[in-house]
Specification:
Layout lengths: L6 E3 L2 E6 L5 H10 L12 E4 L3 H6 L7 H11 L9
Antiparallel strand pairs: 1-2, 2-3
Length: about 80
């Protein structure tokens, strides 16, 4: 899943790419979508706005930010900041 690019940082907007299945699924998808490992942040990938459409085209499901967090929490895969 991916939320819209609404998170400002480093002069651009960012999205979050997550899996509600497993970290392995998340990493495999990110690799296939061409996202570098440096964008991984413990339980999600930070996706710059210019890569958003390509990640969606690769198969990421577009969801609202609140939905993304809810599903990540419900899956048990959400890591707190101190764990990342």
């Amino acid at each position: 899943m991916i939320d819209p690019p609404t998170w400002p940082a480093h002069g651009r907007l960012w999205s979050h790419l997550v899996s509600d299945t497993s970290y392995d699924e998340l990493r495999e998808f990110a690799l296939a979508a061409g996202l570098p490992e440096r964008l991984y942040d413990g339980d999600h990938y930070d996706v710059p706005q210019e890569r958003y459409e390509a990640v969606v085209a690769a198969g990421a499901q577009e969801v609202a930010g609140r939905e993304l967090i809810r599903r990540l929490l419900d899956s048990g895969l959400r890591k707190h900041q101190r764990e990342r």
